[in-house]
Write a structure and sequence with these properties.
Layout lengths: L1 H10 L11 H11 L6 H42 L3 E5 L7 H9 L4 E16 L4 E9 L1 H6 L1 H4 L2 E4 L2 H4 L3 E5 H7 L6 E12 L2 E15 L4 H4 L2 E5 H7 L8 E6 L6 H11 L3 E5 H4 L1 H39 L1 H9 L4 H32 L1 H12 L6 H4 L10 H27 L3 H5 L3
Parallel strand pairs: 3-8, 5-7
Antiparallel strand pairs: 1-9, 1-10, 2-3, 2-6, 2-9, 4-7, 5-8, 6-7
Helix pairs in contact: 2-15, 3-13, 3-15, 3-18, 13-15, 13-18, 15-18
InterPro entries: ABC3_permease_C, Lipoprotein-release_system, LolCE_TM, MacB_PCD
Subcellular location: Cell membrane
GO cellular component, one term: plasma membrane protein complex
Length: 434
Amino acid sequence: MAEAAVDRSSKSGLGPAGKPFSTFERLVAWRYLRARRKEAFISVIAGFSFVGIMLGVATLIIVMAVMNGFRTELVSRILGINGHMIVQPVDGPFTDYPALSGKLAAVPGVKMALPLVEGQVLASAQAGGSTGALVRGARAEDLTKLKTISDNIKSGDMVGYASGDGVLIGTRMADQLGLRVGDLITLTSPDGDITPMGVSPRIKSYKISGLFEIGMSEYDSSIIFMPLEEAQLYFNAEGLVQSIELFVDNPDDIDNLRSKVEEAAGRQIAVTDWRQRNQTFFSALQVERNVMFMILTLIVLVAALNIISGLIMLVKDKGSDIAILRTMGASAGAIMRIFFMTGAAIGIVGTIAGVLLGVLVCVNIESVRQFFSWISGTVLFNPQVYFLSQLPAEMDLSETISIVVMTLTLSFIATIFPAWRASRLDPVQALRYE
């Protein structure tokens, strides 16, 4: 009789002959996931675990995507208007900048060499209002190649700039000063003419040829582009430039170009790159990104702990069922796999739902921002604070995979102890008072 029972139970998947995660084990695990009236509280805990994992995964994906997008947008805008390498003179001013720019632009890996004259000014409008600004004097042919500017002229054109009769300003500066294309903007520089009474500020008005908008409020509100020859006259730098900015094909491979640029210059120069000039800024972004990942991982960890508590309560509630299954021939491994699948199912389904929710929000992140701005009546993600006019989101496949793997690992680990407790349950003790 006993041998026949064992043989029947083995064929049905209850005994040692049953395969791992057999049909019987899956059916029992699925039965335990469905709620009955007396198991409602356990199901509530399982529901909270599912929601916690879903929200944890979605939050991780959304936050990491926004921070990736934020960094990418900032890098593209900062490096789109500033050179990847900045070459400055050591032994004397760059009076031979046309020939030197040609040499540097010919270095393999360098896309463009941009001679610049820069200076701080006070920009004001005739109708009133003023703001600090940075004037960047550049040749018209070079500025045309700088697509971040030339492809983002929102009003006007570069014809006046190319003829030397106009300047380009950002849209935010124009709005702040109440200026339009064709108006005059007055620039005041403290480094003016030397008189018997001392240095007098230099004041001159320029016609606005065009308005650009690169999408970074700090630049759109503070930079003025002026024809190079006019900037040289304005800043008392006739026939020379202060620096030459190089734009390269691969900004991350900047170290390999440094020696080639120094050799091509043929004179003493000081070379700094974009990482050195923005080291503090990008380091802060990286630290913030890592800390946010660790903090948000705690949401998933809390949800995994809910899985433990829910399974332990389920094991206590199903003690008699486990004992009956054991007496019918189910092995300890089969019982362990049943409860492992029960807990793992919550983690797997919650993770899948979290990924779908995260992707959905990331794809519609700007619409979500506008909706919550409308609901709250406030401006979320203010461009004046965060530098960007839109909320960016850029999902990284490897990062998303690591979030999924981490979540599933925590969920599976959380199920091990309750499943082990269920497999160690003594049938005699469980049925003693039944």
